[in-house]
Amino acid sequence: KSLAYGDRKQLAQDLRVGDIVERHMEDGDVVLFNRQPSLHKMSIMSHRAKVMPWRTFRFNECVCAPYNADFDGDEMNMHLPQTEEARAEAGHLMNVVNNL
């Protein structure tokens, strides 16, 4: 069922343990940024998301060198870890602080 097309309060009351609830990405979510080709471990690192109204990726200029980003039309990929274990692993092992 979609919460967008129904009585949200009733649908929320009908939730049971084990139900799968999908949501949009929120500020603070752990995301993985990757730029091909992935030649070293710094080609893919985790960041904390800040959702903005535009359909673009933005990041601090300090991480341009590891990604070899030069703003000439570079294409990057963003991945959103789905499980709590994957989020914890990305947040601790792949974060920018531990890789720069």
TrEMBL record:
Gene Ontology MF terms in the entry: DNA binding; DNA-directed RNA polymerase activity; metal ion binding
Entry EC no(s): 2.7.7.6
InterPro entries to which the protein is assigned, alphabetical: RNA_pol_asu, RNA_pol_N, RPC1
A GO cellular-component term linked to this record: DNA-directed RNA polymerase complex
Pfam families with a match to the protein in the record: RNA_pol_Rpb1_2
Chief location bin: nucleus
Subcellular locations according to the entry: Nucleus
Domain named RNA polymerase N-terminal: residues: 1-100
Lineage: Eukaryota, Sar, Stramenopiles, Ochrophyta, Raphidophyceae
rRNA processing as UniProt keyword: no
Protein family (similarity comment): Belongs to the RNA polymerase beta' chain family.
Record key words, sorted: DNA-directed RNA polymerase, Metal-binding, Nucleotidyltransferase, Nucleus, Transcription, Transferase, Zinc
Biological processes per GO annotation: DNA-templated transcription
Domain of life: Eukaryota
Stored SMART domains: RPOLA_N
Name of this chain's protein: DNA-directed RNA polymerase
Species this chain originates from: Fibrocapsa japonica
